[in-house]
Each structure stands twice: as structure tokens, then as C-alpha cells.
Amino acid sequence: MTEALRLGVNIDHVATIRNARGGRHPEPLRAAAMAASAGADGIVAHLREDRRHIGDEDIARLIDEIDLPLNLEMAATEEMLGIALRHAPEGACLVPEKRRELTTEGGLDVLGHADELKPYVERLKDAGIFVSIFVDPSPRQLEACVAVGAPAVELHTGHYCDLPPGPARQAELRRIADAARFGASLGLEVRAGHGLSYDTVGPIAAIAEVVELNIGHFLIGEAIFSGLDSAIRRMRSLMDKARAEALGVRSA
Ligand code: PXP
Q1: Total domains present in the chain
Q2: Can you give the pTM of this predicted structure?
């Protein structure tokens, strides 16, 4: 059982609000600095092809001015690869991207695109960037991640979070837990994220093999009501409590 559960705070939607008026406020950089002091272990930012939230300058400044590691979410395109290689963030998470989607809607189909993805994984790794791939909790996708040489995966929790409490959500939770166990048995570092909130984070944090959660939209939304510092601290405490309880159950 992994005791330490890292929290990556995704600050994309601070940029969404900033961009609504085209000025500089609110600054994603200030949110990143606040996340650091509130107990985040890393910053996550998705540089999309259409630059709808995070922009190129944000990435440069996050690397230069924030002490926490940056996990750059990116589509596997030559443009994004060039940017990643130029800035050399700590990590890069390969995600699927469609122009018209509201958010990342599903995991990357690694199985169906292994030959195209492998060179991206290799070039990022050669540059010393730790590569993860955002995938649905499917054993075949996890095997494909190993085949393309990725050291880590991030399991998509969006479907689990979208389901109302009940048997279907429980079934999806089991699918994620099984995938986490299988991924770890393949030697993959297992992370999870998408759609997580105060209500849904506990059962995911309790999955022993998951070492990192990446959370954005809910935290930025909740910051409107309670402030970002307080929202991150509360999320951190819910994660840590769920992990500690799971540890207790295992060792009892
Ligand atoms: N992980 C990945 C790979 C994502 O694409 C996103 C959304 O950008 C997140 C985590 C965070 O999801 P949310 O903003 O719903 O918390």
C-alpha cells in the first residue's frame, strides 16, 4: 500500500476565467503559488491546440517561476512535442484532444494508435520528461501503455464521477480499482483523475495502487465559495483521510 498520495492541482480554469475578459486577472501563476502553499505536490496544465485556457506564456512562467513540478497535459502532435521539448517540464501526460469537446472526454486509445504514439513517448523520455498516458480503466489499454514504453498511466475517473451514487457507480469504481491493481502489476505508476470532487475523491484515494490524483475544475469552482487555499486543503485532507482509513483496514 502506498502511503503518500500526491495531489496535482490543475489550474486550467483559472485561465478560462482570465481569458473571458482577455486581461491578466486571475493569474494562473498566482493560483499555482497558492496551490503550492496549500499542500499540492504538483501543478497540472493542459496546453490545448486552440489555447482556450492555458497559453504558451503560462507554460513558460510555470516552469520558470513555480517550484512545484509541472505536469504538462498535451495531445500527441508535433507542435506540442516541440513545446514540451523546449520547456522540459517534469512530466507530460498524453491526452486525446478534439476541438469541439468541452473537456477531455475519454482516455487515449493507445491500443489503436500504438505505432503513432511510441515515437512521442520515446522522444519525451529521451528528453528526461516523465511520461504518463491518460487512459480508460481497461486492461488492454494498460498493456498497450507498457508496449509503447510509458512508465505511468492516469486512469480516467470521469465516468465514475458522472454516475449517480448506486450500483453503476460502484461497478465503475471496481473497474478503476481492478485497473489500478493490474497496471501496478505491469510495473506502471498509476495515477487517477478527472471530475473528482469532495464527494467522489474518497473511494479513489483509498485505492492502494494509486499514487497521485489530478484535480482541477471542482477546486477552481469551489474556490469561488471558499477560496482556493481552503478548497485545496479540504481536498487534501479528504484524500489523506481516505488513504489512512484504507491503510488501517489493510493492516487491521
Ligand atoms: N487529468 C487529465 C488527464 C485531464 O485531462 C484533466 C482535465 O484537464 C484532469 C485530470 C482534471 O480534471 P478535472 O478538471 O475534471 O478535475
Answers
A1: 1
A2: 0.95
Ligand 1 binding pocket, CB closer than 6 Å: 10, 12, 46, 73, 93, 95, 103-104, 134, 154, 193-196, 214-218
73 is catalytic: yes
- Residue at 188: amino acid letter: L
Phi, psi of 195 (to 5 degrees): 80, 5
What are the backbone dihedrals phi and psi of residue 198, each rounded to the nearest 5 degrees, phi first?
A: -55, -35
Residue 197, burial from CB neighbour count under 10 angstroms (0-12, 13-18, 19+)? middle
Range of the domain at 120: 6-251
Residues 67-95: pLDDT tens digits?
A: 999 999 999 999 999 999 999 999 999 99
